[in-house]
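Memo to structure team: turn this sequence into structure tokens by end of day. - J.P.
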Amino acid sequence: MFSKIKRISIIFVLILIVYLGFVSSLLRKKDPAKLDPVAVNDITQTLAKNWDRIRYESLTDMDYGYDYVVVDNEGNLLVATKRGLNEDISSAISNRDTIVDILKDNDTLGKLFIFNDIEVEWNKSRIEILTIAFIAILGFSVFIIVFLIYSYRRIFRPFEKLREFAKDVAAGNLDAPLAMDKDNVFGAFSESFDLMREELKKARDNERVANQSKKELVASLSHDIKTPVASIMAVSEIMQAKSTDSNDIEQLKIIYSKSEQINGLITNMFTATLEELQELKVEVTEQSSNIINDLINRADYNNRVVINCHGECLVLMDELRLSQVVDNIISNSYKYADTSIDVSIDVNNEFLEIIFLDYGIGVAETELPLLFNKFYRAGNADGKSGSGLGLYISRYLMKEMSGDIECQNIENGFMIKLKLMIA
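Reply from structure team:
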């Protein structure tokens, strides 16, 4: 490709040099014609020989290609080859005419003014020079235009296509191939860029497949692990009911509590994976707000929640998904605050608001906007188990139910507010 560009450039330069050389040769200034001493001497000798008859003689026999004037010693005009020549010595000197004395036997008979026609010749050739210059400029302009058209078609237009192609690649559009013209100097580049696009597309497709497989594996493992954990919880609960030894009962409670904790973590991981796989279904229906009291009571495994409910209404919700949200909020409150929890349920305009209030230390104000980010854990979570997915999943579920979730620090603790759309 580069050799082709080099060859074309050399051809253009050679054409330009030849053309400029031709024009310069036409414009080259010719050497002024020199007087022939033999011819001048012949004219003066002939004039001296025929001096007495010079007024009556024709000068056609002395035509040497010069125009001249003959004057006597007093400066009177005797004869001239044509009209309009310099007929006195001052005019001849101003025009830089050649002045020669006409001698006979060492006596000066008169003077010969040989006309200097440089100015006349210049006036004649000026139009010719201007014409040649115009032709030179026109030819050079045509050459430049042809070169620019060639450059645009063979260089700049392929670059424009490459630029648009690069924009598509940067935007992630790897399906549009690059139109290749192997006849232009960038044909090889075009082919290489299109091969790069194909490889990038393959790499992206492989990455998508790998991520999909990874998510499916996590979802599958999470689901499989939940079954034996549920069995452990059920067995420990049965053993607690049958056991009479207080130490055994305490140990079984610990087993049950840890199993429940593992089950919560697995549930969070499983639902987060399903959400990314767009398989986490939320089925919103109109239901009575009385169900919320039962959801809170089932989640209150420490029996430290106090519920204040004002009024009843129909709300838009998914009972299963709202149960997950409530379980997560109460579990977090016991884990991080370890205080009693006051719950108030009130109607506020178009929403039913459920406010959970504990009396712990809360979180730093700078961390509040980050609590709903995936895998984010606040500073008060140090030393406590968790994955940072609970509030992230809760917000997703509330949004899917046309509701919302908010949190803030208050004077005596920490508050989380759920908002459900009233039907």
